[in-house]
Amino acid sequence: MELPITREEAIEVLKSMPQLESDMNHYLESEAIMRGLAKRFNTDEEYWGMLGLLHDVDWALTKNNWEEHSIKAKEILQQKGFDEEFIEIIQSHTYGYEEIPTFKDNKRVTDIQHCLAAAETMTGIIYAYALMRGRKISDMEVKGLKKKFDNKTFAANCNREIIKEIELAGLSLDEFFGLCINSIKEIREQIGLE
Ligand SMILES: [Fe+2]
Fold it and tell me: Which CATH number is correct for 7-188, 1.10.10, 1.20.140, 1.10.3210, 2.60.40?
């Protein structure tokens, strides 16, 4: 699948806006998980990675004005030359949010849409768990992560139902947790983890 810009250019786009380090980390983690999923499904790693990296491309501009989140993204992505299909997948990660009237009644339907939503939601639980473990992810295990997932008060803003959408794409939660840990482990130094 064709991408109009390189990974480096995508990072430049993100850095052209004021970004919190924690937000940048979230984009990189989402990218890493999407790359891991692409490998698992034997599909286009660059394309899936780009979806993860840019899914919140408008976040720096819309975080105080949620109704615009993923609407503004369309403008930015169109300007960079991304096609309708790519943009629709990006926007689909905000389907169902009450705060975004344009998309509150939309439903994700394709595997790639479920994957992106599950991947970006999972980053919050993993990062919070790593911080709790003294920033350590190198020896994180699925069992421990699963306990945190089951404890709904832990990283409570990470919607478990969205993460469970990974099952609609054909992965068990256990496999997904393992894949997420391994994917984020690979970029741990870039995001301040050990
Ligand atoms: Fe996100």
Answer: 1.10.3210
Distance from Cα 55 to the centre of ligand 1, integer Å: 6
**Six token digits for residue 92:** 């689909």
* 147 Cα to the center of ligand 1, angstroms: 23
**Which residues have CB less than 5 Å away from ligand 1 (the ion)?**
56, 120
Ligand 1 centroid – CA 121 distance (Å): 7
Cβ neighbours around 6 below 10 Å, total: 11
Q: For the chain, what are the domain ranges?
A: 7-188
Q: Is the dihedral of CA 122, 124, 125, 131 positive or negative?
A: positive
Tens of pLDDT along the chain (194 residues)?
Answer: 899 999 999 999 999 999 999 999 999 999 999 999 999 999 999 999 999 999 999 999 999 999 999 999 999 999 999 999 999 999 999 999 999 999 999 999 999 999 999 999 999 999 999 999 999 999 999 999 999 999 999 999 999 999 999 999 999 999 999 999 999 999 999 999 99
pTM above 0.85, yes or no: yes
